Amino acid sequence: MKKIAIYLSFILLVISCKKEIPFTGALQKEFIVVNGFIQDDSIVKVSLSHSTPSIGIVDTLANQITFGATLLITDLTTNEKFTSDSVDIEGNYIFKTKGIKGHNYQLALNHPEYGVVSSTITSIPSPVSISEWDTSSIASTKGKGAKNKLLNFTFTDPIGKNYYVFKIVAIDTSDFVDRNVTIRVQDNTQISGKTNGDFLFLDDELFENQTKSVSLNFRPSYYGSESFGPGSFGSNTGVERKYRFEFYNVTEEVYNYLLSVSNSVQSRKNPLSEPVKVYTNITNGMGIFGGYAKTVVLLK
Q: Is residue 222 scored above 80 in pLDDT?
């Protein structure tokens, strides 16, 4: 009993010795964060938020900036200027113009708390036509269980340097949510692609201005049952298996940004990896201002 009393006294002594030392260093400066993607033949939208300090008071509910900013987008190809006069329900600043492939754009914005911020896009890419695609093949996999499907598709790389992002999305899944499907490049596809599972990043260094065939290996997930076939239904759900293949032709800025975000997310899963700096092309701010074109194919 005496030992227990001594032990409890020691614990209380340690607790009573705890001292809170307030942080007296300089807090990291907040920056305005731009999320601006201009798509070919789509209304131009830009969303704004502010960075969150790693130390100090964090107000994650109020990060979005929906008032106080003055935004101007200039079509550098035609010298037309457009201001945003409205904010939609999702908090995006809306411009009364659509993105035009081949055009260059400049963004300039001013905010009383963050100052003048700017960025430039070099040429909105054109959509890439997929000449043929097929999902009838089954990938060879080791072990038991479901076999992966193969998406084989062919496209012609446009003139000039191009950057691509691919993903496959399961549509109307058993929980009624569209979900990204894990994809891998098939071994016989000679490309210098990088993948984090959900996205494949690819540039045309090895096939510039050529016709290229690619094979992607993906698992028919998110439908309850892992069996599959053309027009088949998951035995647990009665939901037809459908997929959406999304093919993005993006500017170099968007490619570098998305790839760095992907690498940053992956590095957080490994406590021994070095932190990854996320790419930005925003002067006096953070985020991305870039362009893209999108091609969509529905698969079964």
A: no
Task: Kindly calculate the radius of gyration of the chain based on its CA atoms and give it in whole angstroms.
Answer: 25
The CATH code of the domain at 130-250 is: 2.60.40
In CATH terms, the fold of domain 32-121 is Immunoglobulin-like (2.60.40)
Does the pTM exceed 0.85? no
- Could you identify the residue written with the tokens 């054109």? 126
Cβ distance 220 to 209 under 8 Å? no
Pairing outcome for strands 32-39 and 286-299:
parallel
In Å, the largest CA–CA distance within the chain is 88
Chain segment 32-73, per-residue pLDDT in tens: 999 999 999 999 999 999 887 655 444 444 689 998 999 999
- List the structure tokens of 272: 């021994």
pLDDT for residue 15: 47
Please state whether 94 falls in left (phi above 0), alpha (psi between -120 and 50) or beta.
beta
Average pLDDT of 99-121? 95
Sign of the Cα pseudo-torsion (238, 240, 241, 242, in order): negative
- List alpha helices for the chain, DSSP H: 2-16, 252-268
Measured distance CA(188)–CA(190) in Å, rounded: 6
CB 139 within 8 A of CB 186: yes
Q: What is the location of CATH 2.60.40 in the chain?
A: 32-121, 130-250
Bridge partners of 153? 133, 214
Alpha-carbon gap, residue 93 to 48, rounded angstroms: 8
Cβ-contact 290, 251 below 8 angstroms: yes
Closest CA to 261 of 45, 67, 54, 35: 35
